[in-house]
Amino acid sequence: MTLYHGFPNERFFLGFEKILDSLISQMPENNYPPYTIEKLSEDKYLITMALAGFDKKDIHVELDRHSNSFKKLIISSKKKEEEETSKDVIYKGIALRKFKREFNLTDDIQVKGCKMENGLLSIELERVIPEEKKPLTFEVE
Fold first, then answer.
1. What confidence score (pLDDT) does residue 86 get?
2. What fold does the segment set 31-82+92-130 form as a domain?
C-alpha cells in the first residue's frame, strides 16, 4: 500500500491509487533537461525543452499509445556524453548526457508537430474531441 501523505487532497482520491502512483512516478528525480509547458488556448498546448548542444538527429520523440492508463509522450536523447577531446576543458556546464522524459496525455490530446530551433525543442499539442464524444444539443420544438 502506498501512502500519499503530503499529496494535495489525498483523502479525495479514493479508488484512484493507480493514477496517483502513475503521477507520483512521473515526478522527476532531477530537472534535466529543463522544460516549460504552456497552455496557448483552451485546446492547444506547447512543451518547450531546453536542449543546448543537441542536434535534432540526437532527439527521439515517441507517442506510446499502448501504456496502461494513458498515452505517453516520450522524449529521449540518443547522444552520449562527448568523448574526451584534446581541448583542455576548465569547466563543463553544458550537459550532453542521455535523458528520457515522459508526459502522460489523455486520449484526446494529439501531437501536432515537433521542431528544434536554437537549442529548444518545441512540441505542439492539441485537444481534438471526436464528433461522437461532443455533447449533443437538441432544438426544443
1. 56
2. Immunoglobulin-like (2.60.40)
